């Protein structure tokens, strides 16, 4: 096999490499010819990748995997010319999924999300982030996070859970925006934190969602409860979301189609990762791509994620998201792979722990039937994943 992720060659490649694992950890990575003989002798099980490639397991750091219903009807409307924003302002969009999610039982939410998660795992995924945000009332937000937790308990995947109560203004608060933010700050965040079912907090900063000031309030209360922040920023317009995320020390700013040069600079200084979501750009037929050249120039790390959700990115494939990041945003296949592994791990607080093939890291690996790692971003459809190892267990 060859391994991507640790050597000094492009892709960190090691030709004819070997990875040794004990328990849930990698204990050695290098050329097979240099594998210490005691390690080889002790091996309880040898998995021969038969000339394929081994990479860190893929990490999807931005999904809305748990939701009720679908929005195929809105897809039809958009194809007739109605825009995503018009649908949202007319009470559809996120709010139509809120209605379907509130009306779905825990079991239905779990089963439908399970099917989508199984597809991701079959395509080499070992870690996934799952957001709430389709409940908006306290109980449904908590229900979504509990379903996300159960998905991690019952599937061979590490789940990171993000509270996105500030995703849209629920209709019952249409006349009083402040009252909704008050509810999020005084009840939803404390309840999710007390139950230990949120690992981070997110907000949607946009004309159809929340203002920078409202997002800032949510982040401040999240930080008081020990929750790192993320931001849906500058997706449809430039409200200064990138700079806001940087100022708040957010782990990431996501989407960023309309982010400014100054925003990119601020993110670089703050160490805020740019999470690129080409699936939403593609599916909404957007025309302005995120400022990838500025991110490169200023040294902003770029992650790539599916944004899997029923409204703007119904894409249950990390590999297709990587392909789109290359074709639509001009990433190199190497940047796309790093964006779905090492950089995605950093967004979730797993820097050096996951998303890398390195001694001491979790043994999360994907084995691929490809002759070169660029193929992971190249094929569209099909599935070159031969096997997944998650926390040291072959799945
Ligand atoms: O990341 N941008 C906001 N939230 C989601 C879309 C949610 C929806 O349309 O249901 C996103 O694209
Ligand atoms: Fe999103």
Order of the strands making up the biggest sheet: 5-6-7-8-9-10-11-12
**Main sheet, how many strands, which sense, barrel?**
8 strands, parallel
Structural class: alpha/beta
Query: Could you give the distance between the termini?
Result: 18 Å
Tell how many strands the DSSP assignment holds. Answer: 15
Radius of gyration, in Å, reads 21 Å
Helix amount? 25-40%
Strand percentage lies at: 15-25%
Regions with pLDDT < 50 over 5+ consecutive residues? none
Mean pLDDT: 96
| Overall spatial form | globular
How many helices in DSSP terms? 16
Q: What hetero molecules are bound to the protein chains? A: N-(iminomethyl)-L-glutamic acid, fe (iii) ion
Any overview of this molecule?
By secondary structure, the chain is α/β, with parallel strands linked by helices. The chain contains 16 helices and 15 strands. The strands form three sheets. Strands 5-6-7-8-9-10-11-12 form an eight-stranded parallel β-sheet. Strands 1-4-13-14-15 form a five-stranded mixed β-sheet, with no helix packed on it. A two-stranded antiparallel ribbon has the order 2-3. β8, α8 and β9 form a beta-alpha-beta unit. The two termini are 18 Å apart. The mean pLDDT is 96. The site of N-(iminomethyl)-L-glutamic acid has 14 residues, from α4.
């Amino acid at each position: 096999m060859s391994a991507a992720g640790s050597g000094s060659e492009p892709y960190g490649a090691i030709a004819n490499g070997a990875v040794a694992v004990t328990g849930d950890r990698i204990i050695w990575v290098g050329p097979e010819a240099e594998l210490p003989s005691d390690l080889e002798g002790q091996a309880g099980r040898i998995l021969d990748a038969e000339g394929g490639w081994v990479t860190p397991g893929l990490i999807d750091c931005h999904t809305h995997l748990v939701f009720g219903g679908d929005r195929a009807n809105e897809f039809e409307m958009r194809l007739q010319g109605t825009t995503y924003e018009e649908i949202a302002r007319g009470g559809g969009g996120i709010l139509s999924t809120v209605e379907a999610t509130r009306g779905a039982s825990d079991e239905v939410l779990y089963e439908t999300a399970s099917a989508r998660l199984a597809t991701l795992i079959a395509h080499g995924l070992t870690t996934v982030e799952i957001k709430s945000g389709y409940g908006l009332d306290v109980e449904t937000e908590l229900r979504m996070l509990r379903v996300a937790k159960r998905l991690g308990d019952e599937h061979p995947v590490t789940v990171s859970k993000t509270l996105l109560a500030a995703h849209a203004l629920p209709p019952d608060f249409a006349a009083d925006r402040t009252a909704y933010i008050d509810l999020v700050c005084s009840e939803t965040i404390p309840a999710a934190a007390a139950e230990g079912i949120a690992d981070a907090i997110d907000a949607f900063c946009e004309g159809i969602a929340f203002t920078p000031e409202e997002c800032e309030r949510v982040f401040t209360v999240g930080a008081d409860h020990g929750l790192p922040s993320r931001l849906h920023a500058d997706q449809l317009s430039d409200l200064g979301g990138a700079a806001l995320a940087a100022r708040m020390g957010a782990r990431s700013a996501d989407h960023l189609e309309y982010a400014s040069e100054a925003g990119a600079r601020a993110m670089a200084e703050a160490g805020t990762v740019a999470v690129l979501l080409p699936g939403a750009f593609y599916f909404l037929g957007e025309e302005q791509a995120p400022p990838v050249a500025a991110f490169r120039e200023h040294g902003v790390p770029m992650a790539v994620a599916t944004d899997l959700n029923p409204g703007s990115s119904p894409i249950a494939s990390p590999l297709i998201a990587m392909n789109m990041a290359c074709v639509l945003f001009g990433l190199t296949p190497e940047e796309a792979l790093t964006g779905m592994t090492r950089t995605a791990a950093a967004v979730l607080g797993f820097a050096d722990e996951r998303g890398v093939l390195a001694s001491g890291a979790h043994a999360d690996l994907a084995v691929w039937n490809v002759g070169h790692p660029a193929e992971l971003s190249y094929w569209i459809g099909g599935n070159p994943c031969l096997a997944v190892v998650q926390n040291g267990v072959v799945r």
